[in-house]
């Protein structure tokens, strides 16, 4: 995880990336965290790590919990399709 030293979030409050809840103020935190991610030079490394390590909470690589879950489902479908061809 050497990329973490270059992450835009390194100097941010970690709580920003782990909001409590999925509505109201928590969604404001998710958007604020994603804004930090958008200016991050290692956003793809972060997202790759989050997906491969199964991070199910927080904002990682500019994605919310639900967005990563959708990516994982799509990847599983793709892998199954490749396996059958």
Task: Describe it.
The chain is mostly helical and 85 residues long. The protein is built from three helices and no strands. The chain has helices spanning 25-38, 43-52, 65-84. The radius of gyration is 14 Å and the shape is globular. Acts as a transcriptional regulator. Probably redox-responsive. The apo- but not holo-form probably binds DNA. This is Transcriptional regulator WhiB.
Helix content: 40-55%
Main sheet properties: none
Count every beta strand, where a strand is a DSSP E run of 2 or more residues. Answer: 0
Overall form: globular
What's the gyration radius in Å?
Answer: 14 Å
N to C succession of SSEs: HHH
Which SSEs are present, and which pair or pack?
Blueprint: H1 25-38, H2 43-52, H3 65-84
Please describe the structure with a list of short key phrases separated by commas or semicolons.
0% strand; mainly alpha; single chain; globular
How would you sum up this structure in a few lines?
The chain has 85 residues and is mainly alpha-helical. Helix content is 52%, strand content 0%. The radius of gyration is 14 Å and the shape is globular.
